[in-house]
Amino acid sequence: MAKFKELHWVEAPQLLAAVRVREVRRDRGITATSLSRKLKIDRVSLHRYEVGERLPNIRVALAISALLGEPVTRLWRMM
């Protein structure tokens, strides 16, 4: 059985956004390694964005949005 960390109310939107980023990246057939290289960030940082441990700064968020061809509001919509 998968274990999930306990969520605080402020973390839930971050995790929803992370799921969208990873899902869209995979749908486009883009590897995490190639995306992180294009973004000029390390692979660990991208992983942290995708699992919801961190939010990217605006420059990185806009770059991810452009590279994935999705509006930034779809990837990081706060609910």
SSE arrangement:
Elements: H1 12-27, H2 32-39, H3 43-50, H4 58-68, H5 72-75
Report on this model:
By secondary structure, the chain is an all-alpha fold. Helices cover 59% and strands 0% of the residues. The termini are far apart.
Name the features.
79 residues; mainly alpha; globular
In short:
The protein is mainly α. The chain has five helices and no strands.
Fraction in beta strands? under 5%
What is the helix content? 55-70%
Q: How far from one another are the termini? A: 28 Å
Radius of gyration: 12 Å
Query: Given the C-alpha coordinates, what overall shape results?
Result: globular
Total strands: the figure is 0
Uncertain residue segments? 6-10
The DSSP helix count reads 5
